[in-house]
């Protein structure tokens, strides 16, 4: 994958206060008194399995509803929004990259990368599909055509997933273990692209990762344990 020249894009700042995340049984999962992330910066969240990293990332995206506290993106407290309003905010502002790709195996690269067009207002669908095609081209998959996703390598599948996350031209990119299933060379190329998306285009990037190489490339690293941030490279 070549490093992208994506143009400038305004990221969003994140301010989290008194965040309380709990399981369906009421068990405490994450407690975060305060976290500020500057617009256009990049943050790695590290820690052992079960520390609450993915749960925290899902709260940042609005996929998890907090028991208490605020998650404010650029002035919008998504913790206080209705489910439908959070979905709309996510569609308009956030690109999500998951560890297991979540591709539809029977669909080709472009249909997977432009999947959000199926849920967007009709007037926005063509632009979403065009952006998805553009990102696939940048990632070297423009010639994939109608090849089914189940024929792709791990690196190709991750590139399709990243193109899908970027198809809505997001101000924020949230990635959960994006390099976990990739060999070192492919992971390093993906890291180059993620870093470029933040540094060159101004998007805010937050990544949950066990990959020390990825973490050290980002502006800031926080470490979690037992649902709390126990170390912050900014402090």
Write the layout of secondary structure elements.
Elements (H helix, E strand, L loop, with lengths): L13 E9 L5 E10 L4 E5 L6 H9 L6 E6 L2 E2 L5 H11 E4 L11 H5 L8 H17 L15 H13 L5 E5 L7 H16 L4 E5 L3 H6 L2 E6 L2 E5 L3
Parallel strand pairs: 3-8, 3-9, 6-7, 7-8
Antiparallel strand pairs: 1-2, 1-4, 4-5, 9-10
Helix pairs in contact: 4-5
Strands in their spatial order, largest beta sheet: 6-7-8-3-9-10
> Beta-strand percentage?
15-25%
Termini separation: 34 Å
The largest sheet, given as strand count, sense and whether it forms a barrel, is: 6 strands, mixed
What would you note in describing this structure?
This protein is an alpha/beta fold. Helices cover 33% and strands 24% of the residues. Strand 1 and strand 2 (28-37) form a beta hairpin. Helix 4 packs antiparallel against helix 5 (154-166). The protein starts with 13 loop residues before the first strand and ends with a strand.
